[in-house]
Amino acid sequence: MMLEHPREGESIQIHSYKHNGSIHRIWKETIVLKGSPNYIIAANDRTIVMEADGRTWITREPAICFFYAKHWFNIIGMFREDGIYYYCNLSSPFVRDKEALKYIDYDLDVKVFPNMTYVLLDEEEYERHRKEMNYPDVIDRILKSNVEKLISWIHQRKGPFAPDFIDMWYEKFLSYRK
């Protein structure tokens, strides 16, 4: 059952799955900054993350997260001492139920540095999982075209990559933490 989009200030969990339906990772607590049918902007800092094997760790820095209902990626902007780093997961569009915001992680990632240079990561893992979990050809095409879309956004400084965009949402996040 789909729910209305989450309310600003609401705390939600994020569940990442693999294509075969197995859990990949769970973020225990993330604050919604803006919710709409097409996207959710959320933030967390020092939140507990549980891996598929049960191991847990705590995030080290504030992160602003962008999830889309129509794009096959999500974008996480992380605040570090030397600037904002982005970690972009190639993934299914998100869905949300009573339990959490959920998406399928498709292995490919784009890491973007503060100077807007980037690197595509985990291509070998993607190819291995594509064979093991039988990703359909249509998914392969969608993901590869979304890598191109993401790179285009980086070059154009579009969406979360726009100057000051992450800072604006971070300010909003801080207002919820007071």
UniProtKB/TrEMBL annotation:
InterPro entries: DUF402 (IPR007295), FomD-like_sf (IPR035930), Ntdp-like (IPR050212), SA1684 (IPR016882). SUPFAM superfamilies: FomD-like. Gene3D superfamilies: FomD-like (2.40.380.10). Mg(2+) 2 binds at residues 107, 109, 122, 125. Its cofactor is Mg(2+). Its EC number is 3.6.1.15, 3.6.1.6. Mg(2+) 1 binds at residues 89, 105, 109. The keyword Hydrolase applies. The keyword Metal-binding applies. Keywords: Hydrolase, Magnesium, Metal-binding. It catalyses: a ribonucleoside 5'-triphosphate + H2O = a ribonucleoside 5'-diphosphate + phosphate + H(+); a ribonucleoside 5'-diphosphate + H2O = a ribonucleoside 5'-phosphate + phosphate + H(+). One of its GO terms (molecular function) is ribonucleoside triphosphate phosphatase activity. It is an enzyme of class 3 (hydrolase). Residues 20-158 form the DUF402 domain. The active site is at 25 (proton donor). Belongs to the Ntdp family. Has nucleoside phosphatase activity towards nucleoside triphosphates and nucleoside diphosphates. PANTHER family: PTHR39159, UPF0374 PROTEIN YGAC (PTHR39159:SF1). This is Nucleoside triphosphate/diphosphate phosphatase. It comes from Anoxybacteroides amylolyticum.
